[in-house]
């Protein structure tokens, strides 16, 4: 059935025309890709000048004029990767624009100009040697604004990635800044230990908010040009093919004719689940001719209103209240999973799996491995039956090679394949991140080889893996390495040439380094700590071993000094809490090992004490010492005390480099009359916006320890506040509880609080939240007392 007069949008314009609702409000627009990214001479660069000053706001051209500027790509053809995905979907031509109250200063203008010139000239590798606290993140944002290209920023861990993502969101508020990390709060990979004949089943707990952010990243890459994705090494792991991801996307336009039942079947094949009662991400519901879909990557839901077989109207609406936010002419609904596959592809994959199974069983039986053969036959035939009946099975990623139709030994698709061919890669803390990328493949492969050898998986499971280093370099183009201590690899790629950024916008200089004898080092350290605590300043102490860190903490506690320790056995989110508490002054001294290095932003720390500085090795190498020294660089009176009986080559290198930077910084300040100002930075949780207070359940398992397995296996408490649980929370003396029981009680109460919030019982949720905070306080006091 078709009503006349619906070929165009409500305003009479053709859908997608420049003046239509779609062009004004929709993020997903089908516009011609005018190729073109950037035209030299439109960025306010002063010809022949060595300083860059952003244009004053008054002199900026009108918004319409800026958007109308013709643009062209400055990416040399040599470094353009082939386009891997063919689709009629074309990204919008959004432009990067930094919004900041500050202008580049110190070394930033020269660094931005130097980086941009090298990138635009087509240099494949560029190194930014940026001292701690010089604003490398802001420099990166201004660089992105100048080159106008989609950018991937890689960080060595989730915490630093979250910190970077928040900084970029503040600097680029009008652009898409995405966060792409592993979505597991708890992850136990599948493994087998032959020595004890122990099989460990895969066990995980998925963070739904981080999963949404991952989908949001891939959605933005297909629909926008102004995208910055901040990712960890997770971006080199398998993600499903972008071609299939786009082909399975559901495109709907106002006025077109669509069979309603066919539309519903398409949503099911995209792995959306029909649920007419609970409207959550990844579900859809049907009410007559109205279909509502909640995409996994959106904050808003989509409503499709039909009149017979005609699409009459399309809306974005609030999923809870149902309030319409905006009406559009066209939408794309991307699949609910990156691993989506159509029926034809799945049937072909099953045939390929059966052929490999037959071949592998013959090999095992020929070798006399009858137990392994039987084990493999049972497991694989069960998985095949699940794929035939429901289109999915546990551990389906192990069959990704067959589903993708790849050749044996080839790498699967990953996030890098979702980027356009001219994207820019920025590797933060490159001296840590580059070796991390190179080491992922072999670490994953050693576990999988054991599973394959003992009949738990087909050999094709080994092709579900992270990229090898060579495969990684083949997928990237131009790369900018950021580090205060660039590694040998980066320096080798640029023949030692770097862009330097050592002058801080605040005028702060690198700390003074003092070498002291090891004899009486603890007594001297206590004296220095007391001097700092009188001034309300903080102290970091680095030791060589965990045992020494714990023993020193106990000794300082006996002397009445407020102190904590930090090492690899401390849970990740607890580390973030410890650093925040240090800044807030809940304690004065933090003792640690290798965690007191990259990325720590602690302006209150005025002293860094390095014990046994003359013990050559990884923890006392030149790069490690320079990074550790940098932790005191954000304080006007920062000092570093090295306790050593001799000057090792690493110490000499670190001291020489620090003094070189100090001389440049002092000369700059003297020449311009700059008075170094203390850095006053708001104390916030760097995971704000990623792990929100209202959804602490995702992070609670990591904070408490030992609860992830219980939740992931469906053994978490039934949502809702029972009278038994209420009595338990109010009547038990929590001060006498063992730590594990206290942790379990917090986990249960957290679940009940979230369940109450989902059911709109906000008074109950608020009361539970207050009780939860008290229990967490007890847990922290317990940890402090037993530290």
Description of the structure:
The chain has 787 residues and is an alpha/beta fold. 39% of the residues lie in helices and 15% in strands. The chain is built from 24 helices and 25 strands. A 7-stranded parallel beta sheet has the order 3-8-2-17-18-1-19. Strands 10-11-12-13-14-15 form a 6-stranded mixed beta sheet. A hairpin with a 4-residue loop joins strand 5 and strand 6. The longest helix is centred in the middle third of the chain and has 24 residues. The N terminus is likely disordered.
Write the layout of secondary structure elements.
Elements lengths: L20 H5 L37 H6 L39 H13 L4 E6 L5 H12 L3 E4 L3 H14 L4 E5 L3 E5 L2 E3 L4 E3 L2 E4 L1 H16 L3 E5 L10 H6 L2 E4 L6 H10 L3 E2 L8 E5 L2 E5 L6 E7 L2 E8 L6 E5 L1 E4 L9 H24 L3 H21 L9 H5 L19 E4 L2 H24 L15 H7 L3 E5 L4 H6 L5 E3 L10 E5 L4 H14 L3 E5 L3 H13 L4 E4 L5 H13 L4 E4 L12 E6 L11 H8 L9 E5 L5 H24 L24 H8 L3 H5 L10 H9 L7 H20 L3 H24 L2
Parallel strand pairs: 1-18, 1-19, 2-8, 2-17, 3-8, 10-11, 17-18, 20-25, 21-23, 21-24, 22-23, 24-25
Antiparallel strand pairs: 4-7, 5-6, 9-16, 11-12, 12-13, 13-14, 14-15
Helix pairs in contact: 3-4, 9-10, 18-19, 20-23, 23-24
In a nutshell, what does this entry contain?
This protein is an alpha/beta fold and 787 residues long.
Pick out its properties.
globular, 24 helices, 787 residues, disordered N terminus, alpha/beta, seven-stranded parallel sheet, six-stranded mixed sheet, 25 strands
